[in-house]
Specification:
endopeptidase fold (from Nostoc punctiforme), 6-stranded antiparallel β-sheet, two-stranded antiparallel sheet, 32% helix, 23% strand
Length: 159
């Protein structure tokens, strides 16, 4: 009986945490795009959005990211963002991603994964995410086929 209550309590806590992540991400909507920035309302890129939500929901960032280029076409094939996500978050199968999970995208077939979004809705016709990109800022987008085929991995924020 106690184990059942713990798992129900754990499930409720996980659901509340996911809701907090989604609410925090929605609070960033409309933030202008600024490469390497992470300041709600002032400027953020896709990594800055995830970092800001981390600070709001999880706590202090565990590390400071190194400088990175804004281009999706990299000469280097280093998977720095992928490696950081694996180091700091829990990898999950993309098909099991839920609202509040982080999606990592590979924008070019032979390039490194360089774009992040936070899944905010999984029901309805198409899932939705919040992400940031140049010329648009932090926006909500449908996770349609063009985005889905670019998913390289999915991650959950740490407990």
């Amino acid at each position: 009986m106690t184990a059942g209550r713990c798992s129900m309590g754990d499930a409720r806590r996980a659901e509340a945490r996911r809701a907090a992540i989604v609410a925090a991400a929605r609070g960033w909507l409309g933030t202008p795009y600024r490469h390497q920035a992470s300041a709600r309302g002032a400027g953020a890129d896709c990594l800055g959005l995830v970092r800001g939500v981390w600070r709001e929901v999880i706590g202090p960032e565990p590390e400071t990211p190194p400088a990175y280029t804004p281009e999706w076409l990299e000469v280097s094939r280093e998977e720095r963002l992928f490696e950081a996500c694996e180091r700091l978050m829990r990898r999950i199968p993309p098909g099991e991603a839920q609202a509040g999970d982080v999606l990592l995208f590979r924008m070019r077939a032979r390039g490194p994964a360089k774009h992040l979004g936070i899944l905010v809705e999984t029901g309805g016709d198409e899932p939705r995410m919040i992400h940031a990109y140049s010329g648009r800022g932090v926006v909500g987008s449908s996770l349609g086929p063009s985005w889905q085929r670019r998913i390289a991995a999915a991650f959950s924020f740490p407990e």
